[in-house]
Design a protein that fits this description.
This protein folds into 2 domains: 2-18 and 27-355, Peptidase/esterase 'gauge' domain (Methylamine Dehydrogenase, Chain H); 356-406, Orthogonal Bundle (Type 1 dockerin domain), CATH 1.10.1330. Residues 1-19 and 30-37 have low confidence and may be disordered. It has 406 residues and is mainly beta. The strands form 6 sheets. The protein has a 7-stranded antiparallel β-sheet, with no helix packed on it. It has helices at 2-15, 305-308, 361-370, 391-399; strands at 24-26, 43-47, 53-60, 63-69, 75-86, 92-98, 101-107, 113-115, 124-130, 136-141, 152-157, 163-165, 178-184, 190-198, 201-210, 214-217, 230-234, 240-246, 249-255, 261-264, 270-275, 281-286, 291-297, 301-304, 313-320, 326-331, 340-346.
Length: 406
């Protein structure tokens, strides 16, 4: 009965705004280069509900140019490194590399960068997530050059700037152990993993941590198995997604807010990457060499992105926002080893050709630029999702000209 009630609550959340299913479109990323033609959207790492985007260009081994902005030309931070998440206020978190040092920071869209404080006894930190209320989560370690091993611990910074290692709040007996938290919601509830690493065997358990109750382990199908179970994302309602292992292999998983585990059906190995507040989940199915991406919710089941936008091949997915915008890599050919990251979003604003939530001259220009294209429905400029950019699309833009959508 408990699981049935929890599923009913989930379905009630997922139904809100999800029926009928929306058409999807690419977000217009023109122009692809910044004014100095040196930075571009290469890898898109995160997007906020307000449309802030952070990513990487010119990636080289373990760092790159950190780019940030909205759809279009990005700006660039002065130092190379990595970036991981952004919130609705335009605050984003990442790290700088220098030899063996890893310096964590938080930045704003004004280009102001501040170093993040580390807990006592730790020397390096990687911030993985930032909430809209200013909670930050990630992993810290005490590595020094010459060390044979380092101690990795989950890490949280509260909105008041207190830097907390979760190393003293560990619900599994035994040493050595490692852990990290990857996502945190506005209430400061963080999710990740804790477990043991012995040679090449990762015995990880998914964990949820909150400021009042500390850490607790989430259910898994095979608690005795030495496998890398992980919780990867959490929404405002405390629903969690991640990856677990059962007798068939790696499975995409979600946990209700009461901790009940459910496995998401898939055609092969899968992991659930992200979840929004409506309960819509992004799933990565397959492997790096043979990846597919689909959206899932308990009402509609799986919707493969290649079916939402025919004519393209979609590979590794990323975050999903509360309005359904999704980061995903794509190509126009199968088995492409160098797909390009892009953003797709529901088409909710009639006449909005470029995904700006307003119908204006930019939409007219988008339709005219794409006029005559016929390569699959709901692409940039194909306002009516007919499969071709034609006079019907231009008429729809002009009919709704001046509209601003919420």
């Amino acid at each position: 009965m408990k699981a049935t009630i929890a599923m009913a609550i989930w379905m009630g959340v997922a139904c809100a705004g999800a029926n009928p299913l929306p058409e999807y479109q690419f977000v217009d990323f023109q122009p692809p280069y910044s004014d100095d033609h040196q930075a571009y959207w290469d890898y898109l790492n995160a997007i906020s509900d307000a449309g802030h985007i952070v990513g990487i260009s010119n990636w080289d081994y373990n760092d790159g140019d950190i780019v940030y902005g909205f759809a279009g030309a990005p700006r660039v931070l002065p130092r190379r490194g990595a970036v991981y998440d952004v919130n609705v206020h335009g605050q984003f978190v990442g790290e700088y590399h220098e030899d063996y040092a890893i310096e964590p920071w938080v930045a704003t869209f004004d280009g102001v960068v501040e170093s993040l404080p580390l807990p006592k006894g730790f020397r390096r930190g990687i911030p993985a997530g930032i909430s809209d209320t200013g909670w930050i989560c990630g992993v810290v370690d005490d590595f020094e050059p010459g060390d044979s091993e380092a101690v990795f611990r989950p890490w949280v910074i509260d909105p008041q700037g207190n830097s907390i290692s979760l190393g003293d709040d560990y619900p599994i007996e035994g040493r050595p152990w490692a852990g990290a938290v990857f996502d945190i919601n506005d209430d400061g509830v963080a999710v990740g993993y804790m477990g043991h690493q012995v040679e090449f065997i990762a015995d990880y358990k998914p964990v949820v941590w909150d400021p009042l109750h500390g850490a607790r382990l989430l259910d898994v199908p095979r608690p005795e198995a030495q496998v890398p179970n992980q919780a990867l994302a959490i929404n405002a309602h405390g629903m969690i997604v991640g990856t677990v292992w059962d007798a068939t292999g790696r499975r995409a998983a979600y946990w209700d807010s009461d901790g009940t585990l459910h496995l998401i059906p898939s055609n092969g190995p899968a992991r659930a990457i992200s979840i929004n507040d409506q309960g819509h989940v992004v799933v990565w199915e397959g492997s790096l060499e043979n990846a597919r991406a689909f959206l899932w919710d308990p009402v509609h089941g799986a919707r493969y992105i290649e079916d939402l936008l025919p004519g393209y091949y979609f590979y590794t997915p990323g975050q999903i926002t509360n309005n359904g915008t999704v980061i995903v890599s794509y190509s126009n050919q199968p088995n492409d080893r160098n797909p390009r990251d892009t953003i797709i979003r529901p088409r909710t604003c009639p006449g909005d050709a470029n995904g700006s939530e307003a119908v204006d001259l930019a939409d007219v220009e988008t339709v005219l630029y794409s006029f005559g294209w016929s390569s699959g429905p709901c692409l940039v400029g194909d306002v009516d999702c007919s499969g071709t950019v034609d006079l019907d699309d231009l008429n729809l833009v002009l009919l709704n000209f001046g509209t601003v959508c919420e």
